[in-house]
Amino acid sequence: MNKAERLFQLTNLLRGRRTAITARTLAEKLNVSERTIYRDIQALELSGIPIEGEAGIGYRIRHNFELPPLMFNRSEIIALLLGSRMVQAWSDKELAGAASRAIEKINAILPDDLKALAEQQTLLVPDYFVNSKQSDISQAVRKAIENKQRIYLTYNRADGEYSERILDPLGMVYWGGKWTLIAWCHLRENYREFRIDRINSASPSDEYFQTSEQHSLDHYISLITYPAETDYS
Amino acid sequence: MNKAERLFQLTNLLRGRRTAITARTLAEKLNVSERTIYRDIQALELSGIPIEGEAGIGYRIRHNFELPPLMFNRSEIIALLLGSRMVQAWSDKELAGAASRAIEKINAILPDDLKALAEQQTLLVPDYFVNSKQSDISQAVRKAIENKQRIYLTYNRADGEYSERILDPLGMVYWGGKWTLIAWCHLRENYREFRIDRINSASPSDEYFQTSEQHSLDHYISLITYPAETDYS
DNA sequence: TACTCTGCTGACAACTGTTGTCAGTAGAGT
DNA sequence: ACTCTACTGACAACAGTTGTCAGCAGAGTA
């Protein structure tokens, strides 16, 4: 096997696991000597890959490390840039930050002609309707969904009344302009939707929930039917 | 210089230009012999890079070739996936197609834990309000903007009247739910906005326009002030 | 047609980088 | 103390890369 290819395999072997792996194991898997593995690891570290080696334990790759490289062509890059700008404008601070960093990385490799097109910004995404409180709540809710964490919500109902709920948050939907939380409501014992912009506070609890056949986003989606067309004018 | 690095430089040299470049020039730039360049080119072709060599002319890289590889970390990938889903749902067919291809490429390299998160689709983007005719018009308009091509537009005014215009299309804006075309209107001798969903037809002409200080998207943007907050309920 | 420019290939020797082996040090856990 | 493992240096064997030379082929030009 080629050296370059072996280095690539090596990152894959390290990336795929959470526990440490010894140089000997890697050497056996790649059919080379341990010495070569040590040299390869050094090479990878030199090129910036954060591998942690501990005597007596083995090698581990730092989590949240960059994924394998991706190649996009010109039209895909345009779409990714536009999409990132949308995320920048219409999601919580954390996602928006990630989108910004992605945009920077993309900009760094654009050839001149595409850079001109990107700077021209002929596809604009105004961000004027994101407000800071909404962004924080949206982020808290998103985290709770990811962690399957039960949350306590206070919000203003459409009729102006104040209300509070204990919810199992299942997912968020962006309906052309507004984010909406879909959750299992313990008060109503049923699915409910909550517009993020009407939420006053969202506090994650210590309790975790589990999704099931009759209690999941998929199940909720199977219950509703999207209207064929909706007028947003 | 390392061979791997030289191959990388080589693709960059080829990618940056539209005219052909000879092996001799490449050899001089990279400080190696022509023979080595020929071997390198062969290596690149073997790994799938579409380089065209013609005797008496030189080398050219096929346009729309994939850009240099990009490395994203986990949070950036999540943002890119969400953004791509937004583009898939809310733009014209061509961009949406590019977004789909980008999503496929991303999915192909996701580690298991992220794949689960992506499949879970906790951030949904409903696409029910894209209709096919709008998508075609939006695409035609976008192309005209890119090419700086004058267009002939027919549309339904808000008051129900039919109207037609000759326009220099400058950009498109997505205002939380609707795409809007910003253009220089030759009838009014001023900037005008046109909602894409009210456009009946858009035909590019043979004429091309040039943007200038007083006749550009930047200038238009400098004229308006975004409202601090808008109610989309 | 002859000539030039350039891509492209093969052979080979000089050179450079890579690998395995061996030998040894150092840190962490038992 | 003992084991496991990371890590380093030296060196010889080996593999891959490079430059040189020589020659063929196609495209364009005088």
UniProtKB/TrEMBL annotation, chains A, B:
Residues 139-202 form the WYL domain. Coiled coil: none annotated. Pfam families: HTH_11, WYL. Residues 6-60 form the Helix-turn-helix type domain. PANTHER family: PROTEIN PAFB, PTHR34580. This is YafY family transcriptional regulator. The lineage of its organism: Bacteria, Pseudomonadati, Pseudomonadota, Gammaproteobacteria, Oceanospirillales.
